[in-house]
Amino acid sequence: MAEFLNSPLQVFELSDLQGPDIGLESFSKVRYFRVLVCGGDGTVAWVLDAIERRNFESPPPVAIIPLGTGNDLSRVLQWGGGFSKFDGHGLSTLLQDIDQAAVTMLDRWKVNIKEENSEGYIEREQSKFMMNYLGRAMKLLLGIFFINLVLQIASSICYSLPIFLLQVLDVMLSLHMNFT
């Protein structure tokens, strides 16, 4: 594996002048290949969008070395929130882990945005690809929001909190029984 690490034919720097398309084009005739993205959520989304636009018969698996600010997708996929040579693992260990990793499917969809003029004609149309994942921070915020909502409802209807929580649990259990 080491002899391929620095090949200029396999490493593509992404910038405003050169996106991921040039790298994907150079591998368009290769039936099976893999992509390693070094960056954060924005860079990963940029590469995934380019892969989606190319309509590969068999889209390449994408691995992430998390070098961005938030790295939410990398965290959700259990690759961690950042890469550091001081974390006890080196680059060669990370590359071995990537080589042996299982492929995980992402829930991605395309949203078409159409801007119409006052006469109803489409002036501009744009497509965006989106991914369905929530990072840990969002889950934490949703949990805090739910707890605050429960406390507000309980205090606004003058129930004691234990009685109110028991009633909420009773409703949730009855709903669960109806759907299973």
Write the layout of secondary structure elements.
Blueprint (H helix, E strand, L loop, with lengths): L20 H6 L8 E5 L1 H14 L7 E5 L5 H5 L14 H10 L7 E9 L5 E10 L4 H21 L4 H19 L1
Parallel strand pairs: 1-2
Antiparallel strand pairs: 3-4
SSE order, one letter for each helix or strand:
HEHEHHEEHH
Binned, the helix content reads 40-55%
What characterizes the major β-sheet?
2 strands, parallel
- Uncertain stretches: 1-6
Q: Indicate the overall shape.
A: extended
CATH class of the largest domain: Alpha Beta
Q: Which value, in Å, is the CA radius of gyration?
A: 23 Å
Give the tally of β-strands: 4
How does this model look, in words?
The chain is α+β, with helices and mostly antiparallel strands. The chain has two domains: 2-111, Rossmann fold (3-Layer(aba) Sandwich); 136-179, no CATH class. Helices cover 42% and strands 16% of the residues. The chain is built from six helices and four strands. It has helices at residues 21-26, 41-54, 72-76, 91-100, 136-156, 161-179, and strands spanning 35-39, 62-66, 108-116, 122-131. The strands form two sheets. Strands 1-2 form a two-stranded parallel sheet. A two-stranded antiparallel ribbon has the order 3-4. The model is unreliable at 1-6 (pLDDT under 50).
